[in-house]
TrEMBL record:
One term under GO cellular component: plasma membrane
GO biological process, alphabetically ordered: proteolysis
Protein name (record): ABC transporter ATP-binding protein
ABC transporter domain mapped to chain residues: 482-690
Subcellular location: Cell membrane
Entry keyword set: ATP-binding, Cell membrane, Membrane, Nucleotide-binding, Transmembrane, Transmembrane helix, Transport
Length: 690
């Protein structure tokens, strides 16, 4: 079942959004090929993703739920052509791709990480592990339609109220376009009326009126440009803020499963959508209206000449639409590869110390350069398309212009057109083809918005983290009682239980240490208390109220939390300790800095508490950063302290001093720790390995 260009079924390319969902994306591609209206996001939402990657058995089970019959095979390289395509290949021992076609010298695969790829047989043996998975329709096949994406209409509905500036721009643009009809008439009057009759008075009248129209044109253009700027700024500020607000409201797992460069790229798609709407939407509307008006005038002059322009335009339109799918495909690959390069670059900067320590700068540079080569190759493909498009554009309209010159000159010779009418027609023809080709190009650009909409939908279609309705707890916040009741939790349906029937309670004012081997769920306990996740079974109770029922802001207001991967933000030390407090209490900042044993270091710096720091390029050591983060938690003065390895980078004496401050504060404290000194400072120990 090979994929043909004109076959009824077309194999799409779906890219993975999460790091470990290549198998999910491959299933989505083949399911879509067989008739399901489905994509990666909808499968992830309906069946959940595989948090640590998928086994072949996982993919087979998922395919069965989609009415596809799986058949796992072990095949040699020369047997690839005998497989029922499209099928899934196990690739590089840790990846899945879709085999789309087998040629004499290469195969074509749809790689959910980088797109459509031609792989020479000499390279296939280096990547293909010999395991393939054929997927065919079951007899009981039923089409599923659960595409999880937003439409162009959804985008327009989320825009701010832009009616007033939009109407103003359309009116002014229409007026400017109407004025553009007048110059060809001037040309006709000058040639037929002024030059042939030597009428200087008519010439003066035409020149004066043309200067007046020029002045009006310049004024209106300035007003329209200002209105367009107002519209663009209004859309940008309001819409972008709404999207960023939604991004920040997403569950924590959304960010844990994605690369930062990919999230940044998807968010940037909103900018591309906004620019396309403001630059092309109005222009396309006016081009269409004015092109029709110009065509009417051309037909009035000569229908024979008008037909030549129309035919050239039909040919150009066919070419643009025929190549649209190819353009969309490589543009999407460009966006994905660019996001990967950005992620790799940021990751390299964040890990530069480890890279230098292990002398892996050359290896890192080589890997980055390979990504850059892939990105450059796609850029070259786009450039080749642009060259071909310009060539076809010039050829079509150049031939049409030559034909118009020939036929038009013949009509003038036969006295069917005056010279002035002929010159006016040529001007209108140029306007018509220019507007219509611009309209077609803009329509293609507007259609290309679907790429950015699909990428942005990964953000805006994700539901914000859920929150309860309880905004006030039944007791005083200073008297907190925490209880875990038969809690079961795992991060995905295919993973093992992290917490398995865990029960314990923590009384107000207690200092409790949570211990156990790595991976037993200590940090998970903190995340469940914070409402980042909720248990699959059992309850996490605060004052007898389930965290599922407590408003997330009310819940998180109870805790001062220090996690293992917390970091310093760009800004002053004062800003980091007060953590975006609109009116930071300087006295309190200094107090908690002393409690965290960091005040002496801060005051020794030239700028003191106003010293600028950041996650990268910070003049502080790891232990000093950790103490600033601890000071941040103390500054909040919450009802419960949650410390996840919060003193792991500190020396024993400093750790003891800080532990004494925490233990003597009377605040309920939960310590996730491995060190004996930290554990001994607690009133009670809960061992999750028990």
């Amino acid at each position: 079942m090979d994929v043909k260009f004109f076959s009824k079924n077309k194999l799409p390319i779906f890219f993975q959004s999460e790091l470990s969902e290549c198998g999910l994306a491959c299933i989505a591609m083949i399911a879509s090929y067989h008739g399901h209206k489905i994509n990666t996001a909808s499968i992830r939402k309906q069946f959940n993703s595989f948090s640590m990657g998928a086994k072949l058995r996982d993919l087979m089970d998922l395919a069965s739920q989609l009415y596809l019959l799986p058949r796992a095979l072990r095949v040699d390289l020369h047997e690839l052509g005998q497989l029922k395509m499209p099928c899934i290949l196990h690739w590089n021992m840790n990846h899945y791709v879709v085999l789309a076609d087998v040629k004499k010298k290469h195969i074509i695969v749809h790689d959910p990480a980088i797109g459509k790829v031609k792989v020479p047989f000499s390279k296939v043996s280096e990547s293909f592990t010999g395991v393939a998975l054929e997927l065919t329709k079951k007899v009981s096949f039923e089409e599923i339609s659960v595409e999880n994406k937003i439409s162009f209409r959804d985008i327009l509905e989320k825009l701010p109220d832009i009616k007033s500036p939009l109407i103003q721009i359309i009116f002014l643009s229409f007026f400017l376009e109407a004025i553009s009809i007048i110059p060809p008439l001037y040309m006709q009057f000058i040639i037929d009326g002024v030059l042939l009759n030597s009428d200087r008075e008519l010439l003066l009248t035409i020149i004066i009126s043309s200067l007046a129209i020029l002045a009006i044109n310049v004024i209106i253009q300035s007003i329209r440009s200002w209105a367009a700027l107002v519209l663009s700024v209004k859309m940008n500020l309001s819409w972008m803020r709404n999207i960023f607000h939604h991004l920040l409201s997403l569950p924590i797992y959304f960010f844990e499963k994605r690369q930062i460069g990919d999230i940044s790229s998807r968010f940037s798609s909103s900018i591309s959508i906004q620019q396309t709407l403001t630059n092309y939407f109005i222009e396309s509307l006016l081009d269409g209206i004015m092109a029709l008006g110009t065509l009417v005038l051309m037909l009035l002059y000569s229908y024979k000449l008008a037909i030549i322009s129309i035919c050239s335009l039909v040919g150009y339109t066919f070419f643009r639409l025929a190549w649209y799918s190819y353009l969309k495909e490589i543009t999407e690959e460009q966006l994905v590869i660019s996001a990967q390069e950005n992620s790799y670059f940021i990751e390299t900067l964040r890990g530069i110390q480890s890279i230098k320590s292990y002398k892996k700068t050359l290896e890192r540079e080589s890997a980055w350069f390979n990504i850059l080569i892939n990105q450059t190759n796609i850029d070259v493909r786009l450039a080749r398309f642009s060259i071909a498009y310009k060539f076809i554009n010039t050829m079509f309209f150049g031939i049409a212009q030559s034909m118009t010159l020939w036929v038009g000159a013949s009509l003038v010779i036969d006295s069917l057109l005056s010279i002035g009418m002929y010159m006016a027609f040529m001007s209108y023809s140029s306007q018509f083809t220019g507007r219509m080709s611009s309209l077609i190009d803009n329509i293609i650009s507007l259609k290309m918005i679907s790429l950015h909409i699909d990428r942005l939908s990964d953000i805006v279609s994700t539901e914000p983290e859920r929150t309860g309705i309880c905004k006030a707890l039944p007791c005083d916040k200073s008297n907190i009682y925490i209880e875990f009741v038969n809690v079961y939790f795992r991060y995905s349906d295919d993973s093992e239980w992290v917490l398995n029937n865990v029960s314990f309670n923590i009384n107000s004012g207690e200092v409790v240490a949570i211990t156990g081997p790595s991976g037993c769920g200590k940090s998970t306990v903190i995340k469940l208390l914070m409402g980042f996740y909720y248990p699959q079974a059992g309850e996490v109770l605060i004052q007898g109220v389930s965290t599922k029922d407590i408003d997330k802001d009310t819940l998180r207001d109870l805790f001062s939390c220090v996690m293992q991967d917390d970091f310093i933000f760009s800004g002053s030390i004062m800003d980091n300790i007060a953590f975006m407090d609109d009116s930071p209490n300087t006295v309190q900042v200094v107090k908690v800095a002393k409690q965290a044993c960091i005040d002496t270091k801060i005051t020794s710096l030239p700028m003191g508490y106003n010293t600028i720091v950041g996650d990268i390029g910070c003049p502080l050591s790891g232990g000093q950063k950790q103490r600033i983060i601890l000071a941040r938690a103390l500054y909040k003065n919450a009802s419960v302290f949650l410390f996840d390895e919060a003193t792991s980078n500190l020396d024993k004496e400093t750790e003891k001093n800080i532990s004494d401050v925490i233990c003597n504060s009377g605040v309920t404290t939960i310590l996730v720790a491995h060190r004996d000194e930290t554990i001994r400072s607690a009133d009670r120990v809960i061992d999750l390995s028990a």
